[in-house]
Design brief:
It is elongated, with a radius of gyration of 25 Å. The mean pLDDT is 85. Strand 3 and strand 4 form a beta hairpin. It has four helices and four strands. It has a four-stranded antiparallel β-sheet with strand order 1-2-4-3. It has 128 residues and is α+β, with helices and mostly antiparallel strands.
Amino acid sequence: MEIELTDRRSNPLLKRSEVQFAVNHASKPTPTRAEVRAALAQTLNVPSDRIVIERMAAKFGTARTVGEAMVYETKDVALEVVREHILLRNGLKTKAAKPGSESAAAAPAPSADAAPPSPPAKAPASGA
């Protein structure tokens, strides 16, 4: 997997650097966001937790993926500025459990020794 930086701009207002990239992956499938983040971190000499991939798209019929990433000054700035669904995609934030799902997860699983529930009793047939 080869990564090529096609454009780089500084954005001091949001305390980030905006990078456009292209990934050539001749004999491999489309790389994951985590793989691209690790390659960008190595290329740019920054920790991968400060890199957020905004978008990434494979070009149909070719082994080339293009995308846009943001490199923040600190991880805290990234967590403050970036939209939540983008943080989830990049693995910088975990999805919070819904309040109703906690009780279902905490309920004990039925044991194998427990007898199956008996079928309901049949109502007597009414003769009309």
